[in-house]
Amino acid sequence: IDIVESSRLHEMKVSVQDLRTKILQNAWEIVLKHGGEIESQEGDKIYANFGLSSGTPGNLCNAAYAAAKEFRASLQAVNDHYGTSIEAGISVHYASSC
User: Fold this and answer.
1) Contact criterion met (CB below 8 Å) for 46 and 24
2) Which of 21, 36, 71, 73 could form a disulfide with 31 if both were Cys (CB 3.0 to 4.6 A apart)?
3) What DSSP designation does 49 have?
4) Dist CA 31 CA 47 (whole Å)
5) What is the pLDDT of residues 45-64, one digit of tens each?
C-alpha cells in the first residue's frame, strides 16, 4: 500500500492525530484483521505478507484481496467524511514456495 502524494497530508489533522497517521494505522489494522503480517513501513508505504507463519488458515490470496478491498473502502469513507481526495496504490503479488 502506498499513499499517493502523502506530503499534502502532513498538515491535515483529525482531532489531535494527523490524517496520514490515521490512514496508515487503519491499513495496519485491516491487514492484521485479514491474517496478514506487516513486513515493514517506509514513510507512506506499508509492505505486508499473508501466509508467512506456518499454519495460517484459509485462502491467502482471498485474504490479501479482501484486505485490499476493505482498505480502498475505508479510504473512500475518509474522503467522503473529511472532503478529501486521498488515493493509494495497492499491489498484490503471489509467490508460491518462497
Assistant:
1) yes
2) 36
3) E
4) 10
5) 999 998 876 655 668 888 99
- Residue 46 is inside which H or E element, if any? strand 45-50
How sure is the predictor about 74, in pLDDT bands with cuts at 50, 70 and 90? very high
Which residues contact residue 41 at a Cβ distance below 8 angstroms, ignoring those fewer than 6 apart? 24, 28, 47
Question: Which of 33, 13, 36 lies closest to 23, judged by CA?
Answer: 13
Instruction: Kindly report the pTM of this predicted structure.
Output: 0.83
In one letter, which amino acid is 62?
N
What does the alpha-carbon distance between residue 55 and residue 57 come to, in Å, rounded to a whole number? 6
Q: How far apart are CA 64 and CA 52, in angstroms?
A: 12
